Structure formats: structure tokens, C-alpha cells
């Protein structure tokens, strides 16, 4: 039979699976941390940015170790039942690993850890699909936060703008996002490019 001439998608990226060896390394690292640190905490996160987490992790680098990844691999490392746990009571911790969660091994006292986790909250621009926490509305008139080069970009995002003597001007009031509703891709781009606060 002749070879098919249909266009087929060809992936150009070549990635290798992490495989069993990587999982075993994670399990061993978690088990070493159980021996090295006095306490372990399970933490959950929502809409986490890698750079922000890295900054937080660097604050605790000297006294703590964090693990994020497959919950099942972390559960295996701690032990899923009384029979295969590596220390008494650790199987209870593995049951708490659900959804977006991670492990924090530390030598710090409990009050200090709770204070650090509760006190750390960092703001960043909203992503597409996240729920708006407030209504952002731009009023008619000049938009000083944008340069004249941004006018075509803003028009593409659906904003009613025009150039008036080199200044970007909003022709009518424009609602970027409504409180409690998901943020559209256009609104996310507008919020990212402008510091609307």
C-alpha cells in the first residue's frame, strides 16, 4: 500500500520520562529527611508561582527542606499503613497528602512554622480563569500609565482607545473585570501590562 500523505502533527520536543530511578531518589530523600529533621508538616497551596515559592523556600533553607511532587510517591516514602511506615504515626501524614500539597521537614518550633506560613502571602498578577477579587473599571479620559506604542495592543484587547496628541485616551468607560467572575485572557493581559492600582 502507498504511504499516507496526510499532514500529521510532529512533536519537535524530546522529553525523557523521569522513571523509577527518579522516584526512588525522591523516596530516599524523604526518608533521610525524616531522620534528619524533628518535625514534618503537610501544606496545601493554591495558584502557586514557582518564583514566589523559591523565595519562601530560601528564607527557610538553613532549617527546613520542602518536597513537592507526586502525592503517591511521597505517601510511599512515608508509609501508607502501619505495616510499612518508617516511624510510628507517619502513615497518618500520608493520608493528608491530597490535591495541591507538599511536605515541609523542619527543626523549627511549631509556633515559628505556623507564623511563617500564615504570615507569607505574596501578590502577583491574576491568571486567565482565576476569579477576580475586585471590580476593575477604567474611566473615560487619558490613560497616563500606557505609552503611545501600547495603543494598538490595547485596541486588540477590546478597549475603546484612540491616540490624542500622542496620549492614549479611553473613549468610554471600560470594565476590565467584574468581582467574583473569571478573568478573561484579554483582561489578564490588560492587568499585566498596566499597573492599575
TrEMBL record:
It comes from the Eukaryota. Keywords: Cytoplasm, Nucleus, Ribonucleoprotein, Ribosomal protein, Ribosome biogenesis. Gene3D superfamilies: 3.30.70.1730, 3.90.105.20. SUPFAM superfamilies: Ribosomal protein L10-like (SSF160369). Residues 1-20 have a biased composition (Basic residues). Component of the ribosome assembly machinery. Nuclear paralog of the ribosomal protein P0, it binds pre-60S subunits at an early stage of assembly in the nucleolus, and is replaced by P0 in cytoplasmic pre-60S subunits and mature 80S ribosomes. This is Ribosome assembly factor mrt4. It comes from Forsythia ovata.
Amino acid at each position: 500500500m502507498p504511504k499516507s500523505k496526510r499532514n500529521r502533527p510532529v512533536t519537535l520536543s524530546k522529553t525523557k520520562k523521569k522513571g523509577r530511578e527518579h522516584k526512588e531518589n525522591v523516596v530516599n530523600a524523604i526518608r533521610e529527611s525524616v531522620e534528619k529533621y524533628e518535625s514534618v508538616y503537610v501544606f496545601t497551596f493554591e495558584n502557586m508561582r514557582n518564583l514566589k515559592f523559591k523565595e519562601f523556600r530560601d528564607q527557610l533553607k538553613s532549617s527546613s527542606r520542602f518536597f513537592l511532587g507526586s502525592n503517591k510517591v511521597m505517601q510511599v516514602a512515608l508509609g501508607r499503613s502501619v505495616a510499612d511506615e518508617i516511624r510510628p504515626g507517619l502513615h497518618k501524614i500520608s493520608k493528608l497528602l491530597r490535591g495541591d500539597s507538599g511536605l515541609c521537614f523542619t527543626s523549627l518550633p511549631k509556633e515559628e512554622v505556623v507564623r511563617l506560613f500564615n504570615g507569607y502571602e505574596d501578590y502577583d498578577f491574576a491568571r486567565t480563569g482565576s476569579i477576580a477579587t475586585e471590580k476593575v473599571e477604567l474611566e473615560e479620559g487619558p490613560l497616563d500609565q500606557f505609552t503611545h506604542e501600547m495603543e494598538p495592543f490595547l485596541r486588540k484587547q477590546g478597549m475603546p482607545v484612540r491616540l490624542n496628541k500622542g496620549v492614549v485616551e479611553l473613549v468610554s468607560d471600560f470594565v476590565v473585570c467584574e468581582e467574583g467572575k473569571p478573568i478573561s485572557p484579554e483582561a489578564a493581559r490588560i492587568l499585566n501590562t498596566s499597573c492599575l492600582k
